[in-house]
Write a structure and sequence with these properties.
The chain is mostly helical. It is built from twelve helices and no strands.
């Protein structure tokens, strides 16, 4: 069950990532923060790419980045486009919403993964899984009531829909990850996990640089200004480490994407605590009940997927 342990470690780090991201976006310009996050993440993996290509130091290790041509990189580029689209929506939404609202919404992502598996792979849900889906829907409805107390209308607030869109694209990314790293004989592409993680960061960085130059830079004096904060580095460090453990978990043959996805959403507990302790967010009792329903739904999904 090493893959499950890695998934739990990834979840804890992911909660810290969300919390640092909220701090980095506080009264800050979104596009340059996201660009710097992709840049620092790329720099973290650059030594592994160089050492793997020029020496035999990392051969056979978990840090080895395999060679790949266009046939492999075209899949990674698609991965970068999916993730970056999710991040752009998620960053803008998180900047304008309480962390204790964003976390529970993101925690419904495993339900989206299951629905995706249902629609794409023709899988059938059992009673436990349907119960988990029902609890996730109920928690979302209750969370919308909690949000109204803070002036957030779930039906008409575009920041909420950005978070929902980010979660949906995140679910697509999760299904795609398993396809990328599943062995060819199992119907997957069979890509090396470090090849995927290292290079999709570089592709994202290039795409964000284009957005920075074309969209943000010409209008930087008319919109929210950018200011440096050390939490920006923390975002990249926590995310890179969390994703490393996530990809390592998925690369194991016995790993189940539905379980890994659910465990990763447990990060909401960490981010919720950060929101309460450091950002002093409101209406915590009602939100904690909504969160408990989400977590109970995740338990039901885990039982049904075991």
């Amino acid at each position: 069950m090493a893959w499950l342990i890695l998934a739990f470690m990834s979840a804890a780090l992911l909660g810290c990532y969300d919390s640092f991201k909220k701090q980095a976006l506080k009264s800050n310009a979104v596009i340059p923060v996201l660009f710097l996050n992709t840049l620092f993440s790329s720099l973290i993996f650059l030594p592994f790419i160089v050492l793997s290509a020029t020496t035999d130091t990392l051969d056979g290790s978990i840090f080895y980045v395999s060679d790949g041509g266009w046939n492999e990189h075209k899949y990674i580029l698609v991965k970068a486009l999916i993730v970056l689209s999710s991040w752009v929506l998620g960053y803008f939404g998180m900047k304008h919403l309480p962390l204790t609202i964003v976390g529970p919404i993101n925690a419904t992502r495993p339900v989206m993964v299951l629905v995706g598996a249902l629609l794409v792979f023709g899988e059938r849900l059992n009673g436990w899984q349907w119960a988990g889906v029902a609890l996730a829907v109920l928690s979302f409805l209750l969370l919308s009531k909690s949000g109204k107390k803070e002036g957030i209308d779930f039906k008409h607030d575009h920041w909420i829909w950005m978070i929902v869109g980010a979660s949906a694209l995140g679910a697509v990314s999760g299904l795609y990850d398993k396809y990328l790293m599943a062995p060819v004989e199992s119907g997957g592409v069979g890509l090396n996990r470090m090849l995927v993680q290292a290079w999709y960061n570089f592709y994202q960085c290039g795409l964000m640089l284009a957005m920075l130059v074309i969209i943000w830079w010409p209008h930087r004096k008319e919109i929210t200004p950018f200011h440096w904060h050390w939490s920006i580095v923390g975002v990249s460090l926590f995310l890179s480490t969390a994703d490393f453990m996530y990809f390592y978990s998925l690369s194991m043959p016995e790993a189940m994407i539905s379980i890994v996805s659910m465990v990763r959403r447990g990060s909401v507990v960490v981010s919720f605590l950060f929101g309460a302790a450091f950002f002093h967010e409101k209406n915590l009792k009602a939100k904690a009940f909504d969160l408990a329903l989400v977590l109970l739904g995740m338990i039901f999904l885990a039982i049904g997927s075991a």
